[in-house]
Amino acid sequence: MQKDLNILRYEDAALCLPVRLRKVALALPEERKALAEEFRLRAGRPMTVLLPTGEIPLNVFVEPEELEALCDLATEFSRYAAAETLREGYLSVRGGFRVGLCGTAVMKDGINTNLKNFSSAVIRIAREKPGIADSVAPQLFRNGDFANTLILSPPGGGKTTLLRDLVRRLSEGVGEYGPRRVSLIDERGEVAVMYRGEPQMNVGPHTDVLDACPKALGIPIVLRAMNPQVIAVDEITLRDDLRAVSMAAGCGVRLLATIHADNVEELRQKPLYAQLLADKVFRLAVRVVPIEAGRFYQVEELPC
User: Fold this and answer.
1) pLDDT per residue over 228-283, tens digit each?
2) Mapping DSSP to helix (H, G, I), strand (E, B) and coil, where does residue 146 land?
3) What is the Cα–Cα distance from 100 to 60, expressed in whole angstroms?
């Protein structure tokens, strides 16, 4: 019998672990493998697996040397090549996985230049869900063109997963509307999960990815360099981000972005996001609504 894809992704993520920890991780019952979201490693503490119900400890304590070994495995024994993201506290791994790291920051002139003496790590078990945007994407067009759209959900609610699949659909083409040139500003490396210049996730054939670049800097770069029809960004959080998306909208480029919020009313209650609504940059919102069977996507018109 063919294994569940979620179990296969779990087992692929376990390959990032040092051998002793990997053996324990692979012994987890398959029903739990299918639900697992992260491996969490803390020096001197039991390794845990994060499930939707919370962390469960596994019967193995993490040695500090194993955190070093994890970093070597994740970088394929080339930490120098991964220095840019390592100093930001994460590593992108072949296959679409992401390793977050904590340890001692190496500071120079007030800037963190590296991490050493690792104390903890998290391996995110990234899973694509192709097709979840199929019913949503056609609803995001007005007058024959894609309408500027916000994706709303609380942290961990599935915004990034939906964003990724919407980018793929826009890049491939949505029905009669045809493919769009999409520039994806992947500041934290969680959407496309670039590895040596190649997306590990399917973001579509006409998508250009600017990786590990702040949104406020990346949006002007792609406007000048890539002639995008749509710019996609994950998690607008800063006033500089707002200025950049407003500038892009003024250039006639369409926008797709995510924000932490349950609904539009919550946006209105936060001064930063209230300004976003007042500027009328975005026309539509997609709420990610949790339901017993998974998630439901509700498209709403924003005030004009």
Assistant:
1) 999 999 989 888 999 999 999 999 999 999 998 888 888 888 888 888 888 889 99
2) strand
3) 20
- Side by side, the strands of the sheet bearing 182-186 are 207-211, 182-186, 230-233, 254-260, 149-153, 284-291, 294-301
CB distance 280 to 267 below 8 Å:
no
Q: What are phi and psi of 7, to 5 degrees?
A: -70, -40
pTM: 0.78
Q: CA 200, 46, 51: angle at the middle one, nearest 5?
A: 50
Tell me which long-range contacts 29-35 makes (C-beta under 8 A, separation of at least 24).
30/3, 30/4, 32/56, 33/6, 33/7, 34/4, 34/6, 34/7, 34/10, 35/6
The C-alpha torsion from 239 through 149 and 228 to 247, rounded to 10°, is -30
107 token code pair: 């500071």
Phi, psi of 4 (to 5 degrees): -60, 140
Angstrom distance (rounded) from CA 5 to CA 3:
6
Distance of CA 280 to the CA centre of its chain: 26
pLDDT in tens, 98-129: 899 999 998 888 887 888 899 999 998 877 78
Is there a contact between 85 and 212 (Cβ–Cβ < 8 Å)? yes
- On the 0-12 / 13-18 / 19+ scale of CB atoms within 10 A, 296 is exposed
Using DSSP's 3-state secondary structure scheme, residue 168 falls into helix
The helix or strand, by DSSP H or E, that contains position 66, with its residue range, turns out to be: helix 64-74
